[in-house]
Amino acid sequence: MSNLDRQATLSACGGRGFVAAEPVRELLTPRHVRLGESTEVRRLLPNLGRRMIGAWAFVDHYGPDDIADEPGMQVPPHPHMGLQTVSWLHDGEVLHRDSLGSLRTIRPRELGLMTSGRAISHSEESPKPHARYLHGAQLWVALPDAHRNVEPHFEHHANLPTVTAPGFTATVILGELDGARSPGTTYSPIVGADLALAHGTGASLPLDPDFEYAVLSMSGEAHVDGVPVTPGTMLYLGCGRTELPLRGESDAGLMLLGGEPFEEEVLMWWNFMGRSQEEIEQARRDWTEGSRFGEVKGYDGARLPAPTLPPVPMKPRGRVR
Fold this sequence. Notes:
Layout: E1 10-14, E2 23-28, E3 31-35, E4 39-45, E5 56-66, E6 74-80, E7 83-91, E8 94-98, E9 103-106, E10 111-115, E11 120-125, E12 133-142, E13 153-157, E14 162-165, E15 168-177, E16 180-181, E17 190-197, E18 202-206, E19 212-219, E20 222-224, E21 227-229, E22 234-238, E23 243-248, E24 252-259, E25 265-269, E26 272-274, H1 277-289
Antiparallel strand pairs: 1-25, 2-22, 3-4, 4-5, 5-12, 6-11, 7-10, 7-12, 8-9, 8-11, 10-13, 14-15, 15-16, 15-17, 17-24, 18-23, 19-22, 19-24, 20-21, 20-23, 25-26
Region (Disordered): 295-321
Pfam families: Pirin, Pirin_C
Domain Pirin C-terminal: 193-293
């Protein structure tokens, strides 16, 4: 998914100096962003004051939207570099096309994982015909310096491991949780899991105290470490936890995001992650001139133009504003 904001702002991310080294409870509220003609997303990362959770650097939550009489998601071809995109659905389908020739329909609780590496472009759209409802999350993972120029590739995993207990299911999207490991390729210590809680169910998740964590509320009402969360909000939890108590106040859907605090400071502008202003400027030129990022074939429409670069120098400044 692209950042479609035509006044794309610079986000300076990374560095351990701003990580909460102890458990905290910091409720993040979203910024509402239009995505195409008929989809509005709630942007949780980057957020005012909080830029990353581990290597997770971008989180959009959208829906549930009734798109029975709408085109649904329509994101034209756009570029990425230096990151991975994670597509995750609770309802609906998304048709993924990319410059490698990949063509795949992603369905609920299937992992669509695209590693941009040095350069890739892709489009995302609701198929024709499509399901009535669209509900999901789009997330980006920063690639560490040693791997940020890997060859681009796309993975689709329809069958993911689960951790279950009465009234509770955790589907492991990336990384490992309670001994269950996702087949998705990762390049830094990270975890992502989809959590389903039945009404009245309590559960306790084992956590790694060296990771920082956050929980995104997708649907229903739940308490996370005693804090009520509602759909479209995210609770930042800091580090130093060995377990996380959860309780469903209704049937509820959550996403657990975590990882070792990201060592490096990075620049994130539009759909690019780099380490310097020159690198970002070169990527924009390459996309504008039609080089390096390849061509997405089969999408009915023009590709996205790059927004104007900010008038001020770009410099990494850490994880929080």
